[in-house]
Design a protein that fits this description.
The chain is mostly helical. The protein has three helices and no strands. It is extended.
Length: 157
């Protein structure tokens, strides 16, 4: 007897149905497909799979680019700076103690959080139908030129 996997999202039933943003971001946070929550989003550490291995949702549309790194640095920076300031205030340790604690912790936190933040951003993109996740390509529409104007009216003459 064969099992068929049915997507758990309402997007499979109605392609224009609203998608739950928080649910999609939560699924991405744990590295799961934003559509079904079952398949794996990543095929390697930060390499996004082309399609979900469970429901077949196309994931290659994502355009997370540098945003996950920026958000991760901001989050980790707040944690590390707050911790370093509290430790300095309470114990005033030597500089080497700060380095021994905060440098490895910063590296570990960044590496641990980066896939989760990237997955969450991809979930956000999927839920908002950004970058082709809605079935429409991200090609800019041509701007109509008014009669009597040249196509380069805003440029040099």
């Amino acid at each position: 007897m064969t099992q068929t996997h049915l997507p758990t999202s309402n997007a499979a039933v109605d392609p224009l149905a609203p998608r739950d943003t928080w649910q999609a971001m939560g699924r991405g946070l744990i590295g799961k497909c934003p559509a079904c929550g079952e398949g794996h989003m990543f095929k390697a550490y930060l390499k996004v799979a082309d399609t979900c291995d469970h429901c077949g949702e196309e994931l290659h549309h994502q355009r997370a680019d540098d945003a996950p790194a920026y958000f991760t640095i901001s989050i980790v920076g707040h944690i590390v700076v707050a911790g370093a300031l509290i430790l300095e205030r309470w114990l005033a340790p030597e500089t080497w103690v700060h380095m021994a604690i905060w440098l490895p912790l910063t590296l570990f936190l960044c590496l641990a959080m980066l896939p989760a933040v990237k997955g969450s951003l991809i979930g956000l993109q999927w839920s908002k139908r950004m970058h082709g996740f809605g079935g429409v390509a991200d090609t800019p529409e041509p701007v109509p030129v008014a009669a009597g104007e040249s196509a380069n009216a805003g440029g040099r003459r």
